[in-house]
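Appendix B, record 7
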Amino acid sequence: MLTTLLLATSISMPHPPATAHAMAPSLCSTDRGVWATWLEPAAAHATATSDDVWRLRISRCDGAAWAPPRTITQRRDFFVNWADTPQIAVAGNGALVATWLQKSGPDTYAYDIGVARSTDDGQTWTMLGTLNDDRTQTEHGFVSMVPEGDGVRAVWLDGRGMSAGGHDDHGHGGGDMTLRTALITDAVGPSTRLDDRTCECCPTTMARTRTGVVAAYRDRSVDERRDIAVVRLGEDGWTAPADPWPDNWEINGCPVNGPAADADGLRVAVAWFTGGPRPGVRIMTSEDGGVTFDEPITFAGDEALGRVDVAWPAGGDPIVVWLSEGPADDTTHTLTMGTLQSGGDAPVNVAAVEAGRRSGYPRIAALPDRRCLIVWTARDRQKGLNARLTAMAAD
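C-alpha cells (predicted):
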C-alpha cells in the first residue's frame, strides 16, 4: 500500500493503489504529474515469494489523487529484486516505455530486460522483446531511461561477458560488467558499449538537460576503487567516462549503492553514497549540462546507509532522499531527506522503514508545482508501499 502526505502543510492524501506486499517502486516526472510503477503479487497471499506470479502495475499521481492502476504485464518469470527495479519513462511523442527483469535460464543471475510500450496512456501495452541484444544467460539490469526525440534513451548494466555466477563472482574470473545504451522507439535499437568495466550491481541513473543526456553509475577500477563516473551524450556523441570528484572508495565487492541524478534546464544534480575515506551521502551540481561539476556537499556521515535518490523541481533546489541508521534495536532504518539549499545541515526524518534489503530503494520525483512525491516500501509488508509529498523545494 502507498500513503501520501504534504509535509509543509500536513495535508494527507489517499493511499496509492498498490496491494499488500507491493515492492520495487519507480517514478517518472511529467508535466501531467508523476507516473509510478511497482511490482505486486497477482494473487493475495499471507506471504509473497519470487516464485509467485507477479504483475507490473502503473498509476499516475497529479498531486491530489491517484489514477486507477493498470497492469503492464503479468508473469511468473519476473526476476523480483529489492534493488534492481522496473523502470518507466515517457518518450518525446508521449508514448510510455516500461522495462523489467525476466529470467532467461536456471541460474540465479540469468535474466534479460523486458521492454513494453504504450501509446494510449498506459491502457494497453505492446511487448517489444528485450533491451539487451545478446542471448547469453547472464545478468542484465539496473536500467535508467530519459526521453530522446520520439523515443527513450536507456542505459543499463550488461553482463554478457560474465559468467552466470554474476554478483557472487564479483566479476573475478568471469569477465566484467559493462555499461551499454540503446534507443527505444517502436522497436529496440542496437546497443552500444559505453564503459568496459563497472561495478556489478549498483543502480545507474540518467538526466536530460537542455543540451543532452547525462548518465552516472558506479565504476570499477583495476585496484577496486568504486567511485561515481559520468558520461554525456551530446551533438558529438558519447563522451569517455569521467570521474569528476573521486571518493577513492576501495571495496572488494559491489556495495549495491548507486547514484541518482536529475536536471532543471542546464543544471544537473548527481547524488550518491560513499563508504570511502569521507563516508556519507554526497551531492555535486553542474551549471553547464554536466560538462563540469562543483565540489560535492556531504549531507550525512557515518549514520548514512545510502540508497539515494534526487529530484530537482523546476526553479527550485534539489531534494535528496536516503536511508540512515535507525534506533538501537536495529529493526528499522530512517528515511531521511535534505535539500541543497540547506547545505546538508538540516536533514528531515520522513519515516521509519524496515531494516535490511526488504525496504528497497526510496524514490522521489518532482511534480509540476514544485512539490515532490516520495515513494518507499512500507515497514509493514501487508501495506505494500508508502508515499508522501513534500514542498521543501518551495521558495
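Remarks on this record: The CA atoms of residues 207 and 262 lie 5 Å apart. Confidence is low (pLDDT under 50) at residues 1-11, 168-173.
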